[in-house]
Amino acid sequence: MRMSTSHYGLCAAIAVFFMVDTAQSWAAGALPPYKDELFSTQNVLETGQDGAFEIIEYDEMRDINGRDQIPQKRAQRNYVSLGVRKVQADEALSLDGRKLDVTRTGPSTGARFTVIFIHGRDGDRRLGANDYTFGGNFNRLKNLVAGNGGVYYSPTIKTLDSDSVAVVAGLIRHASRQSSGNPVILACASMGSQICWGISRDPASVERLGGMVIMSGVTDPDFAKSAFYKAKLPLWFAHGSRDPVYPAADQQALFEKLSKAKYPTHFTLYQTGNHGTPIRMIDWRKALNWILAS
Q1: Could you give the CA distance from residue 85 to residue 91 in angstroms, rounded to a whole number?
Q2: b or e along 27-43 (b: 16 or more beta carbons within 10 Å of the residue's beta carbon)?
Q3: What pLDDT score was predicted for residue 29?
Q4: What is the DSSP string of 151-216?
Q5: Neighbours of 109 (CB within 10 A)
Q6: Fewer C-beta within 10 Å: the chain N or C terminus?
Q7: CA distance to 83, 137, 240, 247, per residue, from 274 (Å)
Q8: Cβ-contact 217, 276 below 8 angstroms
Q9: In the chain, what percentage of residues exceed pLDDT 90?
Q10: Residues 245 and 282: beta-carbon distance below 8 Å
Q11: Cα separations (Å) of 202 from 177, 206, 213?
Q12: Mean pLDDT of the region 108-136
């Protein structure tokens, strides 16, 4: 959606309103509730590691069929609030001579924090910007971020390799500069987690990060050697117990190793969940608040 000059003026006005309206809650280190009755009332089956590990009940009949108007394609209307599209734009950024297509939701400058979502194989920026898929969870994420003075980027990553790590490093640098150094949170899904692990080894990017989220991702056995690990930045894992692509046990083993080392980490396991379950089910408010408060 291309936007006119008048639209950008409206965006700026809305962003200022959000920043003033949520100043008190942000000072307390928390994003205020947003549709928590729909997204946050999950049944916790088990907890461990002083609350850092949790198993959440997942049921397809309830969490897909009971939530979507068209299963896996269109969430019911009450899960989605489209006013956030007023501060959304498709852009082509030039980052050190590299072109990157992104969907940005929130102010282009002065953001209080940034969230960047990296899709998996065969995805593009539309996946992380779609309001209706994954039970409306991306719409909630956009509202939580933009509604609290932050900015959300969903870029198109063409190749999940070292070249794309460099591109994402450029986006992190751009977002940090545009927000005067406010924290950047990087969230990666599925094979896109390779980008997160690559960024974790880049000291310059790590200096700009506030934390990372890994959903249904691959495991990095050498993570403890990374700049991210040495900085002890918060790391949130989310995985489905029946993931046929990347076994949950591999990621859980890394979490347990980190937990024993007193590293700031959290693991959410969705019981019976599949590969795409964490994208649909992750409680973004809980995850972002934990990272921002760490």
Answers
A1: 14
A2: eeebbbebbeeebeebe
A3: 53
A4: EEEEE--S--SHHHHHHHHHHHHHHHHHTTT--EEEEEEGGGHHHHHHHTT-HHHHTTEEEEEEES
A5: 11
A6: N
A7: 31, 16, 5, 10
A8: no
A9: 88
A10: no
A11: 17, 6, 17
A12: 97
Tokens 């291309």 correspond to what residue? 2
Q: Which amino acid is at 125?
A: R
Q: Dig out the tokens for 17 from the structure.
A: 């309103």
Q: Six-digit token pair at 294?
A: 């760490």
- Say whether 22 sits in a helix, a strand or coil: coil
- Both tokens of residue 187? 């969230």
What confidence category does residue 96 fall into, taking pLDDT thresholds of 50, 70 and 90?
A: confident
pLDDT at position 30: 84
Distance CA 130, CA 72 (A): 12
Measured CA distances, 289 to 19, 47, 122, 148, 294 (Å): 17, 19, 30, 12, 8
**Phi-psi domain of 136 (left: phi exceeds 0; alpha: psi -120 through 50; beta: other):** left
Find tokens 């409680």 and name the residue: 283
Q: What is the arithmetic mean of pLDDT over 263-284?
A: 98
| Tokens 């205020």, residue located | 32
As a whole number of angstroms, the distance between CA 189 and CA 277 comes to 11
Q: HSE of 186 in the Cβ direction (CA atoms, 13 Å)?
A: 28
In this prediction, residue 46 has a pLDDT band, given cuts at 50, 70 and 90, of very high
Is it the case that residue 13 has pLDDT exceeding 60? no
168 with 100: CB under 8 angstroms?
A: no
